[in-house]
Amino acid sequence: MGALERQKKEKEILTAAIQLFAIKGYYSTKMDEVAKRAKMSKGLIYFYYKNKEDLYMAVTKKAFEELKELFREVQKSKGKTGVDMVTLLIQNFISFTEENKMYHESILSFMGLMDQYNNEEKRKLMDPLILESPNFKQLLEIHHDPAKLGIQIISHGVRDGSMRPDLQPEITFYTIWSMMIGYERLRGPIEYENKEVKISQENWQTGFIKLIHDMLKGTVQSQRPKAIQGSLF
Amino acid sequence: MGALERQKKEKEILTAAIQLFAIKGYYSTKMDEVAKRAKMSKGLIYFYYKNKEDLYMAVTKKAFEELKELFREVQKSKGKTGVDMVTLLIQNFISFTEENKMYHESILSFMGLMDQYNNEEKRKLMDPLILESPNFKQLLEIHHDPAKLGIQIISHGVRDGSMRPDLQPEITFYTIWSMMIGYERLRGPIEYENKEVKISQENWQTGFIKLIHDMLKGTVQSQRPKAIQGSLF
DNA sequence: ATCATTTTTAAATAAAGTTCAATAAATTTA
DNA sequence: TAAATTTATTGAACTTTATTTAAAAATGAT
Description:
homodimer; Arc Repressor Mutant, subunit A; 12 helices; HTH tetR-type domain-containing protein (chains A, B); Homeodomain-like_sf (chains A, B); HTH_TetR (chains A, B)
């Protein structure tokens, strides 16, 4: 009955759930399917997780943990200026969400939940199954961790002179964080039905990162002639 | 049997649905409740809307229509430079989502759907109820309308010299659009449980807009001494 | 080995979206 | 105007699926 045994079982369920959520999404994934994939009876899942929402929150928790790890690695990268760390952070975040679409989805939805949770009246209307979820409660404690690291990175950039000196680290970080989140929601090549306008994913990503870079520097890096305008930095 | 009569009935249902979705969210709102609020039997809703998803897509469609109207009004505002139009656009968008949290939610979730829809393999795994929804099909045709107007606004700003000449309108608009979407997802005062860091909503919004402004101008507007750093522009 | 506790299962329950058959109302046709 | 047909409406039946539960199996302690 050891705690290790329990952890192992929980992980088996979680792994099955993540795979299914990633393929079919939360609502299309049935508890029957999770049980089948985890090779156990449906009832047992309820022994390890309070309900389906709790299972999803466990996924979300894992997402935030990996996100924190991603931030930490960028922060630890030696010999980089602050502004270059931000560029690296964005690139890594884009890779992260590309490989773990599911995680990004869960992070997004958790942010929506936080918006409700932080408002007294709205909190009362929240799904009780979520509020009761043990994993949700744990998320309340850790979900700011990545942001804390991000703010440190901006501070570092202001101090080392690679960013505008008037930047306020908190606001600047959350602005960039907004961009990253929004970018991921829109990601993919932009195509209109009639192909009126089309932006390749590469061009958009490059342009996106360049704009953030310029914003942090406070000056446009180079005003090149039209001909080679497309190149980066 | 006039089409007008039908429109009226559809509107009654839609109004009830929007109110409930706004209060309780999509999944917590039951078709029974919608029927009750719209003062009709549950079955009748299925006469006017194909299914619950279709009803939600009708809400989303309304959201995009109002969003387009918001963009258009900004574009029509006379005597404004491009960069000021963008500032106004962001301010209006923030008001819009504040008043219509529900609409913003539906816009966000639609963007998530588009990400799936634009990928052949993922499209096959989408909920058939969504793919069959007539309102979803209509959304496919109109959802780019606001963005088209936004791109025009950026072009205008580059032409009138109020923005950096090297900006690519499409990429720049979608970057700002990302920011707006992400900002709304994070919106509200940022508080850590232990109050370690706290940003008031006002400060964040002001700082957020200023950063975009600087990004578009290409130069920092003013490097004021620390003391009055908080003020805008 | 027996008892208590934990783990596991399979079936029962219940909530909610969807369908359907029957009825009422409205419109068209004769 | 009366009959026929189409449209609108209802309430109950159907179906799917998350959740609960009672019982059985496994595990561990005395």
